[in-house]
Amino acid sequence: MLLRNLRIFRSSGVISTLPITATKDYIHLRQFHTSKHLLKRSRDNKLSKKAQQEENRLIDKLLEDTDADDEIRPPSIDIREKKKQLALEKGLMKAKMTRELNEQVRENMGVIRGYDKLLKTDPLQRVKVNLDDTKDIQKFSDFFVHCGPLLRTFKNHLGSDLPTDFQRKIFTLSTGQLSTIAKGDSGSGRTMALIMMAMCLNRHRARGPGVSTLIIVKSNDLVLKYQQIITKVYQDLVNLMKTIPIPREQRLSFENIDEEETILKYKNINEMAQFLYRSDATTELKQQEIIAENPLPHILVSTPHRLLDLLSTRGMNFLKINNVQQILVDDFDTMIDPETYLDSDKTAPVVLLLDYVLKLQDYNRKHRDPHPMICFTVSSSCNNSLIEQIKEEKQWFDWKKFVPIGSFESPGSLPIHKSVPDNVSLGSVLVLPVIDETVSENVDNKKKTRKSKKKSKGKNNFKVELYDMTPFEYGSDMRTWIDKSYRTTEGHDAYYFKHRNKRLNAARKVKDIGFEILISGFIELHKRKELGLKQEKLLFVHPDSVNGTQVRDFLKKTKRKGKVFNFSDGDESFFVDDQNKNDFLIINSSALPSLTFNGLKTIVVLGNETIKNMSNFITIAGRIRNDKKGLISEDRFPELLDVSENGQRSLASSTTKNSNNSDSDKGRIFLINSLFEFDHYDRNYLERLFIRGGLVDQFSPCGVLEPGFDQDAYNSTFVPDYTFQYFNDGHEFQLDEE
């Protein structure tokens, strides 16, 4: 079949285009020369009228034959009809697309209606477990139903498959993809909860490629801790799946997701999780190489500084964090100002990072994906100012799907329960340096005698005397606690920090002498047999202004070995590792959050400067762990106040009772200060910490009270000022006239 265009020119000059299919039956090639030749012969050679009629007859016959042929469909000669035909075809195509779209909408109408209905319901109604029976849920499998082998691996790692109360709450919200700011006590399993949420989460294919979980932590040590735990669990899971036959219905799978979409699809740990932190050039280059080879890890753990570095230098195309399913921040309050939170002159790196990342998520959400689930864990000292500031200043959370965990008291109110475990006691030791008269100096020759040289070799030219700080009398009047904690003009944190900073600006030599006095005080304390410090491994916590190596060198005078904390050396297990022959573990206070020291019973804190704020005080006290699992029992945080239905607060019945902890379960903190520098403001700072921590238990390490302390002068310095009005959950605190 041959397709040609035959142009027909009649004598009237009308031109049309006719596509025909020429066949041997009725078309002869001679008869179908192009009309151009016919017209030329007609005009140039002036053919006779008879010849023109003959040609027209042949053309008419050809048209008749063409119309009669079923294989030939000549188009309309009228251009208007042709436009109508094109418009009709376009309308049919549009109608077809509309019909297909309507079919898709009709098929998914149940999902759309369910999602719309879900948005209008209370957030807690979206969870997939019965909230009334949450206390009775005993296993991880009640929350992560389709994670059998993975949960079995977690059970082997933790030694238990029972979640803590904090983990029950946060897992319950995660089943409904609800965002939260979770307030938890020390030792409640916050870090492990985030790890389980990240590893048990499975990315649905409808979300497309990207990082599923972004975990933000404060320090390099915490990144290494996450890397250690996640790598160990992943390797144990792989080994479990290889060695133990598991029925197919119990395999790691999720609803509506193929088995290939589970965590087992990752061929190695780098595909499953990646870890970013600042380090030397070689290590950072290795991190970038791993990301380049595996650009879409299931979990990404990073410090804010390192992630901001890569985003600013390599861009979003290098790190696929514009489609994250959940964002988890561990110890969020330790990364910002613990007192003013977001209302600070300097924007914290974690705030800058969240602003950038969540703007990307908001942009993507407008097109397809829902808002990511966001979870912040914070210490028990946080109040509701944090939530209010985030609501007013940031657009991080989808507040329709937000439920806080824990009681967020109003600023200026007492905590409902203790923040410091009731089995932890604190003894405050004051060190008084006294000139050592055994060191005599020859004034005439300006030389020391041989005897004095021998005695003074390796020793200070002073000795120290130790005293107990006068213990605080709490009483049982809640109004007194509030007065001392919040209602004095000079007795608040902002005033004290300003006072303490003046001391920190002293000359380096003066600060070195003051620090040497503290170390000398511990050396003297270490000699006392009744305290039993020689038989224990101790954790030394020093301020950020002091080098850990300097502390270690001073402690050599006790003839015991000390070690500066290094997570890479496995120092979290320092106190249960019999192979480690060191006696002291030295660490600065800023590195303590989220670290777990199993078997730790005694802590030595060098000066008030080490306790940076209330949150840091709770963190230090929460490092004492007698449980082999590294957890602290919920019973160690009893209620301090009872709250009635109308919001009124009163003392809990167990507040004034003495704890019945056994000696083996006790933990001790020795706080050492120099009596020369210890003034009323330092004392008031400690008293407010002790009250806000839940009336911290006190003990006397030395047995001798400090000399010359004037209680009346101290009380007169911090007189309550009732011009300040504080509120407790919206209820103004009223004073009794009596």
TrEMBL record:
Keywords (alphabetical) are: ATP-binding, Helicase, Hydrolase, Nucleotide-binding, RNA-binding
For this chain, one GO molecular function annotation is:
hydrolase activity
Q: Which reaction does it catalyse?
A: ATP + H2O = ADP + phosphate + H(+)
Top-level EC class: hydrolase
Which SMART domains has this protein been placed in? DEXDc (SM00487)
Q: Where is the Helicase ATP-binding domain?
A: 159-390
Domain comment (free text): The Q motif is unique to and characteristic of the DEAD box family of RNA helicases and controls ATP binding and hydrolysis.
Role summary: RNA helicase.
Per the record, the similarity remark reads: Belongs to the DEAD box helicase family.
Entry protein name: ATP-dependent RNA helicase
Could you tell me which species this protein originates from? Answer: Ambrosiozyma monospora
